[in-house]
């Protein structure tokens, strides 16, 4: 069967595409331009006609997906802006919300045989910053970021603007689904991942344009020999988040398409919590080590300083285990892959 993957040129989208192709699906990947599509058609050329691209210049435009949705059995809606440089929150909220509603409306109008739409939301739509540590579940919604953006507008922090965009987009998806449930042949599954790390296989012009989560990890792991690590010891040993390997997340997206019981569910997929120092320790402990290029050095930070750290945000992942049978890669596997990219791409 055939699946439409939006944002196929991105860090996660290309892995979702690759995983589906490996499982025997045909994939149509959306790209913003023919030139961006060329990298993908080259990358997936061994799949011949099983991979094709569709040009969707801007997901926020009305009817942007009207053609792309035609004839597919499933949709993986991955595209949404994830950067932390928006001045006006609408730069993120616009494409996030209109892209999600747009693809659902196009599917409603133009695909009478569609079976399922999987949407990549985020733990950003789940978590709130609270004084006490909390284990969040699918019942939790990030109302806090939405409220802060409403109150502060441009003055809200960049991460708050992003979190609000993901919350509003997911909320819009569920409202759409509730409203149209009775008239559609398909259902909706939402996947909520935390920070995503792992091997980068999409086109990246230079390290400056690397996707946000991969870039954040490399900033912590690598210390340019001329300057100290960007984070203070205190930040390294006390702050972090939860994580998942991009390959596991892609597997989760494939399962979300296939498992009947996933229909209508919001599912958090997370391998567990970290503080940034943990990743440095994992990188330092790799055996055999990854031989980095001469201009890059592994950071040292405060070895072992993350042990016993209080993880303020954790997730209950029972549902992902029960419904999707999720299994997670080790931290070593993820970090080795991320460092090998530094070698092969010359970052
Ligand atoms: P990337 O920036 O690598 O990918 C984003 C993709 O969306 C790109 O293909 C991008 O195209 C496309 N896109 C963004 N805005 C538009 C637009 N207006 N019109 C058309 N295409 C657009 O980020 P990720 O792969 O990390 O993110 C993918 C999804 O995963 C997003 O929904 C993100 O919110 C979610 N997510 C990511 C996490 C992470 O840690 N990486 C964590 C949780 C959720 P182009 O490159 O051409 O701009």
Automatic annotation (TrEMBL):
InterPro entries: Epimerase_deHydtase, NAD(P)-bd_dom_sf, NAD(P)_dehydrat-like. GO terms for molecular function: oxidoreductase activity, acting on the CH-OH group of donors, NAD or NADP as acceptor. The keyword S-adenosyl-L-methionine does not apply. Pfam families: Epimerase. Residues 3-269 form the NAD-dependent epimerase/dehydratase domain. Keywords: Oxidoreductase. Gene3D superfamilies: NAD(P)-binding Rossmann-like Domain. The keyword Oxidoreductase applies. Belongs to the NAD(P)-dependent epimerase/dehydratase family. Dihydroflavonol-4-reductase subfamily. This is Methylglyoxal reductase (NADPH-dependent) gre2. It comes from Pleurotus ostreatus (Oyster mushroom).
């Amino acid at each position: 069967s055939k699946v439409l993957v939006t944002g196929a040129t991105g860090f996660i989208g290309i892995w979702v595409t690759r995983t589906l192709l490996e499982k025997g699906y045909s994939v149509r990947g959306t790209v913003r331009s023919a030139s961006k599509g060329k990298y993908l058609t080259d990358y997936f050329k061994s799949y011949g006609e099983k991979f094709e691209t569709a040009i969707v210049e801007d997901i926020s435009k009305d009817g942007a997906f009207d053609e792309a949705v035609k004839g597919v059995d499933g949709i993986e809606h991955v595209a949404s802006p994830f950067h932390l440089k928006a001045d006006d929150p609408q730069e993120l909220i616009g494409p996030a919300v209109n892209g999600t509603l747009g693809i659902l409306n196009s599917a409603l109008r133009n695909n009478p045989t569609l079976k399922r739409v999987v949407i990549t939301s985020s733990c950003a739509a789940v978590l709130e910053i609270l004084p006490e540590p909390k284990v969040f579940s699918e019942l939790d919604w990030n109302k806090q970021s939405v409220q802060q953006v409403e109150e502060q507008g441009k003055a809200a922090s960049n991460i708050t603007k992003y979190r609000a965009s993901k919350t509003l987009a997911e909320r819009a998806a569920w409202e759409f689904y509730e409203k149209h449930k009775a008239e559609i042949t398909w259902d909706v599954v939402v996947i909520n991942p935390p920070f995503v790390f792992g091997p980068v296989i999409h086109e990246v012009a230079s390290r400056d344009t690397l996707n946000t989560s991969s870039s954040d990890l490399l900033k912590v792991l690598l210390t340019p020999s001329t300057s100290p690590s960007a984070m203070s010891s205190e930040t390294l040993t006390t702050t972090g988040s939860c994580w998942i390997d991009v390959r596991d997340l892609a597997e989760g997206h494939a399962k979300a398409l296939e498992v009947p019981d996933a229909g209508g569910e919001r599912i958090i997929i997370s391998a567990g919590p970290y503080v940034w120092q943990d990743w440095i320790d994992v990188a330092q402990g790799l055996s055999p080590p990854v031989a980095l290029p001469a201009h890059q050095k592994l950071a040292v930070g405060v070895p072992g300083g993350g042990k016993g750290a209080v993880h303020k945000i954790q997730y209950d992942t029972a549902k992902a285990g029960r419904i999707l049978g999720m299994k997670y890669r080790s931290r070593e596997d993820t970090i080795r892959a991320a460092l090998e990219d530094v070698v092969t791409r010359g970052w």
